[in-house]
Design a protein that fits this description.
two-stranded antiparallel sheet; alpha/beta
């Protein structure tokens, strides 16, 4: 009576081994085209970088620093990692409004800005930054290694740093038409000691880097694929 059971067990092992041998995980490079079809020689003007309106609340010093830092960050990224011609900023640029949504609809403003700078494209942004310094509990499920059952537990989660919500818009410098709108969110972790420091807010934010560069230049990303063989 034991031989059929043993035979089935051995057969199952053989099938499992064959299945394992029939698959192979590969890493391949995928070429992703940029959102904008550029040849790399275009003239790009950056600005304005505005602060998102928050229902009448006062603009903080952190908001102002984030606006300046993001402007500098954009310039550095595009100059270092693309062949685009990043134009110098205009001094004393006057805006018809500080409301990002209202400004986005003023086509003539973008036409005039394009003419004044000789830009092929204008990259503007509005930014909302929140300073997070909080701790709380999240509920998560886990499978017990003892009985295999699923349980729920409370896990302490601490968040300290800057949370960014950025709306980047690109305009045609000749027609004033909006050609792209990209919403980007990211989080910059910081220690309590450095939470009041606004320098290098956007340093080492790889998600933000990739999303921004994906607008202007092609990228190569590594993806995993499983190959099934006979």
């Amino acid at each position: 009576m034991r031989r059929p059971v043993a035979f089935l067990f051995v057969a199952a092992l053989v099938v499992a081994a064959a299945a394992a041998a029939a698959t192979k995980e590969l890493r391949i490079n995928l070429w992703i085209e940029p959102d904008l079809k550029l040849d790399g020689s275009e003239k790009i003007y950056i600005g304005p970088v505005l602060i998102e309106q928050r229902g009448g609340s006062q603009t903080s010093s952190t908001d102002l620093e984030a606006s300046r830092e993001f402007d500098d960050y954009l310039r550095k990224v595009l100059r270092r990692k693309t062949r685009l011609d990043v134009l110098p900023p205009l001094e004393n640029l006057e805006l018809p409004t500080d409301d990002p949504l209202e400004l986005a609809t003023m086509k003539q403003f973008w036409v005039d800005l394009g003419a004044a700078t000789d830009a092929d494209y204008i990259v503007a942004a509005s930014i909302d930054v929140k300073v997070l310094d909080r701790a709380g509990y999240n509920t998560e499920e886990y499978v017990s290694p003892t009985d295999g059952k699923t349980y729920f537990r409370q896990v302490l989660v601490e968040e300290t740093g800057f949370n960014f919500d950025i709306l980047m818009t690109v305009y045609d410098g000749n027609t004033g038409e909006q050609v792209l709108s990209e919403q980007i969110t990211d989080f910059k972790e910081r220690s309590d000691r450095k939470l009041r420091e606004s320098e290098d807010m956007f340093q080492e934010l790889y998600n933000l880097d990739n999303r921004l560069l994906g607008v202007f230049v092609p990228r190569s990303v590594v993806a995993k694929r499983t190959l099934y063989t006979d």
